[in-house]
Write a structure and sequence with these properties.
Radius of gyration: 17 Å
Low-confidence stretches: none
Bound molecules: zinc ion
Largest sheet: 7 strands, parallel
Structural class: alpha/beta
Mean pLDDT: 95
Distance between the termini: 16 Å
Strand content: 15-25%
Number of strands: 9
Length: about 260
């Protein structure tokens, strides 16, 4: 089994279970390595109902350290799922300088000036074509990638709706951003949480793997677990799919290198 580099904790207020339960689930599944990557606190209490408060960050990291010493049989990494949101670049820079995260996942959950509290999940643009809506998302992701602050792209096509893949509607932009991801040496996670939702596909959808192989962009796996039983979710299925992409690289943060 491969490492699971995307796991939440109940500090974000929408995940459940104790940290040790997530670790024990990984051990049970024989996953050699995991990363806790809870949602980063944001300035001005932005989206506070779905994330830890700023003052909790230290405790969060201490809790990860406790897990490391309690469970030497598994490698546990400290990480963070960090929102890219225009205007918060310096905040992220300072936070990453102060705290040493092994894994910094870039996620775009909010787009500045969008309706419905900027949420990617609940936009309403009756008069805009889907291509333009996706473009806002992809351009925000691109600005984030190009900050050089992150090392993994989280749920690459989170914005997709069931009818239109980004690869279909915005292919040129997708290719452009893959080049940026390659240039900035990020990996892209295969996030299996979509397989638990109505969309019923991974983020990114598996059609992107051909291009990741072509661009030489490495992948990681992430369950995006918000419950202990979701650790390693459908990784066995993904492993089988990956057999069809023998040249696709995987990134192991633990070893700090990329191998074919
Ligand atoms: Zn979450
Ligand atoms: Zn996310």
């Amino acid at each position: 089994m491969r490492p699971d580099y995307h796991i939440h904790t109940k500090r974000c207020k929408h995940a459940v279970g104790e940290m040790h339960e997530y670790v024990e689930k990984a051990i049970e599944l024989k996953i050699p390595e995991i990363a806790f990557t809870d949602h980063i606190p944001l300035p001005d209490n932005f989206d506070l109902p779905h994330r830890m408060a700023m003052e909790e960050l230290e405790d969060y990291l201490n809790d990860i350290e406790k897990m490391k010493s309690k469970y030497p049989e598994i490698v546990i990494r400290s990480g963070i799922e960090a929102d890219f949101y225009d205007g918060y670049e310096n905040y992220l820079y300072q936070t990453f300088k102060r705290y040493d995260f092994d894994i910094k996942i870039i996620s775009v959950h909010f787009i500045k000036n969008w309706p419905q509290n900027n949420w990617v999940f609940s936009y309403y643009f009756p008069d805009r074509p889907i291509q333009a809506i996706y473009s806002d998302y992809l351009q925000a992701l691109k600005r984030g990638v190009n900050t050089g602050l992150f090392n993994i792209v989280g749920h690459f096509d989170l914005i997709k709706d069931e009818d239109t893949s980004l690869l279909k509607s915005n292919k040129i932009e997708v290719m452009d951003i893959l080049q940026c991801i390659k240039d900035q040496a990020l990996a892209i996670e295969i996030n299996t949480s979509g397989l638990r939702k109505d969309i019923d596909e991974t983020y990114p959808d598996l059609n992107l793997l051909t291009y990741l192989e072509k661009y030489g962009i490495p992948v990681t796996l992430g369950s995006d677990a918000h419950k202990p039983e979701q650790v390693g979710y459908k990784f066995d299925y993904i492993e089988k799919v990956l057999l069809n992409y023998p040249k696709l690289k995987r990134r192991n943060i633990h070893e700090g290198n990329i191998h074919d």
